[in-house]
Amino acid sequence: MSEHYREVEEAGFKAFNTVANSIKFNYNTILNYFHNRSTNAAAESFNAKIKAFRSQFRGVKNVEFFLFRLTRIFA
Description:
Blueprint: H1 2-11, H2 14-25, H3 27-36, H4 41-56, H5 63-74
Helix pairs in contact: 1-2
């Protein structure tokens, strides 16, 4: 595998180097998907729900009540 990284680095294309570095940095996480079929889709979905909920209640002054409502609706 390292031979491929070296070839990409020697090619001199910055975009390829960026991709190669991203793969190198996230290598174990990428392989984890193929080993366990696990993703962070549930966390991303929950994050999207929080963002949608938050957009409905812009300007909330009472953060404690906001968090209470959030846990009652999504927990």
